[in-house]
Amino acid sequence: MSEMQNLYLVVPLAPLAGAILAGLFGKAIGRTGAHVATILGVAVALFASILIYQDVQAGNTFNGTVYTWATSGNLSLEVGFLIDELTVMMMLVVTFVSLMVHLYTIGYMQEDPGYQRFFSYISLFTFSMLMLVMSNNFLQLFFGWEAVGLVSYLLIGFWYTRPTAIFANMKAFLVNRVGDFGFLLGIGLVAAHTGSLDYAEVFAQADALSAKTIELFPGAPWLLISVICICLFIGAMGKSAQVPLHVWLPDSMEGPTPISALIHAATMVTAGIFMVARMSPLFELSETALSFVIVIGATTALFMGFLGIVQNDIKRVVAYSTLSQLGYMTVALGVSAYSAAVFHLMTHAFFKALLFLGAGSVIIGMHHDQDMRNMGGLWKYMKITWFTSLVGSLALIGFPFLSGFFSKDSIIEAVHFSTIPGAGYAYFCVIVGVFVTAFYSFRMYFLVFHGKERFGQAHHDHHGDHDDEEPSDDHHHGLAPGQKPHESPWVVTVPLILLAIPSVLIGFFTIEPMLFGDWFKRAIHVTASHDTIGQFAEHFHGAAAMAMHGFTTLPFFLAMAGVVLAWFFYLVKPEIPAAIMRTFKPLHTLLDNKYYFDKFNEVVFAGGSRLLGQGLWKGGDQGVIDGLIVNGTARTISLVAQASRLLQSGHIYMYAFSMIIGLCVLLSLWFSVV
Amino acid sequence: MTGMPLLSLAIWVPIVGGLLVLATGSDRNAPMARSMALLTSVIGFLVTIPLFTGFDNSTSAMQFVELARWIPAFNVHYYLGVDGLSVLFVLLNSFVTILVVVAGWEVIKTKVAQYMAAFLIMSGLLNGIFSSLDGLLFYVFFEASLIPLYLIIGVWGGANRVYAAFKFFLYTLAGSLLMLVALIYLFMQSGSFSILDWHELPIAMGAQNLLFWAFLIAFAVKVPMWPVHTWLPDAHVEAPTGGSVVLAAIALKLGAYGFLRFTLPIVPDASQAMAPMMIVLSLIAVVYIGFVALVQADMKKLVAYSSIAHMGFVTLGFFIFNPLGVEGALVQMISHGFVSGAMFLCIGVLYDRMHSRQIADYGGVVNTMPKFAAFFMLFAMANAGLPGTSGFVGEFMVVLGAVQYSFWVAFAAATTLILGAAYTLWMYKRVVFGAIGNDKVAKLEDINGREFAFLAVLAACTLIMGIYPLPVTEVMHASVNELLQHVATSKL
């Protein structure tokens, strides 16, 4: 066993070593050294994860401490690993996508002066994310949780001279901190009522917890477990960008595209989903919390999808699509279909990383122009990017046989079977969401790859869309008149192909073990009365049959309707969307302003805090405390003191030191050994 | 181990060394003064290391005890000793003294010997405070330590230094006079000045309440707790960098330490009765001061306010009376020594180059000072309590302890997660990120070897303590348990 335990350590430490090398010794090892070191680190982590996966499949799980971090009272705070089916799946996803993104970065960041720094950050991210998923306790979970937030902050602000980037990264960190605030309180409640932060020990006491109540407001006892779960879920809402804490994710697109794929689509933002799945023994005990989860998730799934329709920046479309898909996963958690949520997390990681990297490839081809209104007809020039993006889009809209179909359909079915309050609303949202997803996805696909070639012309004047991807504003971007886009280098296209393969296949081959087999039996706990996946299992007769049946269901027709409508609107009659926009001006304004969440936060929270701070400072500190209480006294005394200071005329320090010497003399004068 | 009077060495090596440095006189001998000061501070730190390596974690009894008669007429002793509550502060203080000497190396150009001497003497006096077990001896050190700090601000400070120095001096002096009365009362009751004797002394509730207030006023000013905190921002703004570092890293800990050494064990019943008030005051410090810090335009003021908020966590941890709270608060005190010290040093690095502390005068510093920006980022994150840095450990433990006490107390305390990040990162954004703000920023030079050295040492401390705080918490267990035992036992 100890060999395996060493291997567990290798997984997070190899990327960390790479990060340190590239970060601290970037100048010494140069660009090549930096990418070789970090890629090697992540490759080692992936390889070790595969070995661990085989070991877990052989039935060997692990739960143990690496070292004791601190102790206090009866509480022991530890760093340790829990290696089971859920962990190892996350490890594979994280290390695989991370490796693809590392590779891709060689091409994408080629000309950037911060090359080594970038590699250092993404490897540091990989380390943090692995610590998060491999944790066997809440402390380390929180450590990884905030550490990925830090790296996300550093990477969103990677181009630190751009005002939008350094605004976006601070916003991301602060909004995440709001989530972490709830998360920390949840962890505190767990520690206070179970005396432990170790998952296994806490889960063992879950039933005892469910009997307790807590009186947050006098005379209104709440189920303790509900309060704990809602607090923990607030953490998930921050990290996994659920309404109303979603506002940071679209702005995070200010970061370079590789990290949008790795952090803001495939891995970090799914940490909240992973966490809730991990906590299934707790969430199962609170229907209140589950209802809360469903409503938040369903709202995110549908209403963030709508926003994807009005975006013109290619990355922002994918960002809103990510928000909406995270909503789907959250809904799945709420209906106790944890395995479906994690399954969708996995398929989504592949096809969404693919879509982002595809978008990045388009951006390279367009010479860092991200506005879809300047694209069109790119399929001729970028064959690999075009085809892999089509695959990614089809997987996203849930086209039968592709991976997204299996995971999304499972969620829809599970919602259908659920009886938890809120499930009806959620069913409506996820069904309508299918249409919306298909519409915005293929709107993007058609605008970018088909139709009239709109590049190389005089630029539309689209300022105010935050749509330039340039490190410095003086650099010209976009294609010059007459210039044609070109396919990206192999370091970019190979990861696209490698991600397209699982986007197509992985759902078909893994749905049976992951959802209906006993792959997650030990890691995920579902109460019999909530077992929506169990009910769905009765209708499941193999992946092929499910996919064939998928051609005849409502979601398929809705998705096709979305695709056809997008085709009609953006290829056949491009004047229609403009006409609709004019007719429904208020609606468009609402969507264009993202439901005014940002405005609200800026005015109420940011503005309000500054106003309050000024008031407390000028009014409280300077006005009342200093002005009324201190100053009268201080002014009088300082007048007297200044007068007496004149007598010493500049030798005040000598005077004071003589006081200390006097003190020494006094001490020794009376000094006599007992 | 037992042969050497280690605590006496920790106190008197810096003081005697300081006096020798002072004897070098005028600035013609400045190079010699600097070297002597560095040597003294290093020796001063080395003699404290056996205090940690030889410390017995298993007992709450005083260790490295030295006892000698001082003023027999009043039963006053030269009585020294440390336990798990105090030993780390002796080390921290001696360590920070080295940094302060190095930080002032080229920056202080006038009255160098006096400057170095002031810091060395203060270092010895502060060690005296943390190791005194005799009430009067404690008081003497406590008051004497005011003088060098007063001078540091008043002589080497900024434009408005006289006002700030007087405000600081009078504020704290007024507070501690009441403590003297309390000490004399305790002597009259017990016939002894031994603090440990006072821990066992039965006291009626009425007297306990009076004593509590006398101590509270003395210590609350030092911490400083809301609403007697307004001297601190002024003192910091006017103090030279080294003064701010010592003020934040060590001097602020005196008040908090006083609560542990005097208030809680001597008047436990009054402490229990007053705990709700103390908790409310602490929470006001965290929330109210957090908002005030947000709107500061002066970097030093901002960090000063952030110190007050962090110290609010410390007093909160003490008065929730559970091991997590008290130990978390102690860890927070140590960590704050590193982090706020580092923050002030970072601001000092900028000030030495630009002669401005105004956030608005900066912008885009990262373009010209990338190494500095990396260090500053680490310390800013530690200040915002990021896990993996020392700033997280104490906050996490105190919040966990606070949930045991009351959900809403923890709720209010945990807002620091948002507020602390907001004021720290907003400042960082405006100062460091962005395009180059002006010509002066464009001409900035990155940190030199000396600056790199002290920032790197602090960065290492911050990270090590964040990743592996166990050795620090283990030192405290026995003494904290003993302390909580005292608090739980009525003296009526």
Distance between the termini of chain B: 40 Å
Helical/strand content category of chain B: mainly alpha
Binned, the helix content of chain B reads over 70%
Radius of gyration of chain A: 28 Å
**Uncertain spans of chain A, ≥5 residues at pLDDT below 50?**
460-476
Oligomer: heterodimer
- H-E order of chain B: HHHEEHHHHHHHHHHHHHHHHHHHH
**Count the strands of chain B?**
2
Helix content of chain A: over 70%
How many strands of chain A? 5
**Greatest interface and its participating residue counts:** A-B, 74 and 89 residues
Q: How many helical elements of chain B?
A: 23
What's the structural domain tally of chain B?
Answer: 1
DSSP strand content of chain A: under 5%
User: What is the gyration radius of chain B calculated from CA atoms?
Assistant: 21 Å
Principal-axes shape call of chain A? globular
Mean pLDDT of chain B comes to 90
Short characterization:
The complex is a heterodimer of chains A (674) and B (492). Chain A is mostly helical.
Reconstruct the topology from this structure.
The complex is a heterodimer of chains A (674) and B (492).
Chain A: H1 2-24, H2 26-57, E1 62-72, E2 75-83, H3 85-108, H4 115-134, H5 138-156, H6 163-194, H7 199-204, H8 206-210, E3 213-217, E4 220-223, H9 224-239, H10 248-251, H11 257-266, H12 271-278, H13 280-283, H14 287-309, H15 314-334, H16 338-365, H17 383-397, H18 403-417, H19 423-449, H20 490-516, H21 532-537, H22 543-550, H23 554-572, H24 575-583, H25 585-592, H26 597-648, H27 652-669, E5 672-673
Antiparallel strand pairs in A: 1-2, 3-4
Chain B: H1 6-23, H2 30-46, H3 49-53, E1 63-71, E2 76-82, H4 87-103, H5 112-131, H6 135-144, H7 146-156, H8 161-190, H9 195-200, H10 205-222, H11 231-238, H12 241-266, H13 268-294, H14 299-319, H15 323-354, H16 365-368, H17 370-383, H18 390-405, H19 407-414, H20 416-431, H21 439-442, H22 449-467, H23 470-488
Antiparallel strand pairs in B: 1-2
Region (Disordered) (chain A): 459-486
Protein name (chain A): NADH-quinone oxidoreductase subunit L
Domain NADH:quinone oxidoreductase/Mrp antiporter transmembrane (chain A): 135-416
